[in-house]
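Lab meeting prep.
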Amino acid sequence: MCIRVRSIFNEEKGFGFITEDSTRESVFVHSNQLQEVVKERDRVEYEKERTPKGYSAIRVKKYKLIPIKPILAPGRSCPVRCSSPGCLTIQN
């Protein structure tokens, strides 16, 4: 699952909340479930675990985009252009 961190993680208290982009649901996350440093607005991947108080995020790590390079036939131009950050448009 990929989401965006919207709430500030409280380092002093050792917990914070992750807000899912699609549902706006807030999920509790404890610092011992962070596999790396996560900052405000980072995209992260995690699993949800049901607890008596609701859901808790486990195995939280940053979501990393892997750049790809299209393989084109000789003399062809790339049919993909970037129209805005995070959005690709296929040209016909």
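Slide two material, second protein:
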Amino acid sequence: MMALKFLAIFSCLIFVCSSQDPTQTPKRLHPALFFSNKPALPDYPGVAIDTGSVTLACVGGSQDNRRVHFKWYKDGALLKADSSPIIATIAGDLTINPSDYTRDDGFYRCLITDNTWSLLSNMAELQLAYTSGIKKNDVTMSGIQYQGWKYIYTGYKHSKYPKPTFIWKFNGRTLQESKRISISEDGNLYIAQLSLNDAGKYSFEMQLGSLRQQRESINLQVARSLQTTDVYGTVMLGPKDRRVRSKEEVTFECFATGW
């Protein structure tokens, strides 16, 4: 099943905020107003695991202790806290809860004002990385010995920036790509020339930054191939299990043993 974006079933959300020009400092339009930081994550620069909200910090004030107010602009448009329940400015911080990459990606600026003078901050870019999907547990798949097997995971969407890393594990151990095993850029797993030793539990993980989240658990069963061309073993010729008299016809049969 494909996850729906608007049902708040995002499995994880990581956000990265960076100053458009980290070397540039805000210019003062009035000596009494100041910024003590650039609009950024509280732990800028950094990556955080979202818990349903994204907060951009903006700290500033007035040197003559005047009361100041903060406003935020997104892509040049003023954000009004009272016009949307998901946006609020408290002590200069901008909180978006819940965040949505389809709406909240963009450039943000913080404005501080004492109702007489105003000071506009540098611009910061907010990009939301996301993965969404419905987690499935203990999905049973089957394959045939000596034939190929592939598992294409289509129950999720992920952001183009930053792109997640896909990790497959077999019975708890990370799978390494080889001539027989490959993992595509989209996280699909391909195994050629199945053997009975490939039967077991496969788990699928996505990694975004420091976050790892298990997305899938698959039990693979490998059946023996019944095709004679796929039987490996020894062949011997011999008579049927019966007594043979002199000058009688003797019939030989072919016995094949395989594994």
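Talking points for slide two:
The first helix runs from residue 101 to 104.
The longest strand covers residues 118-133.
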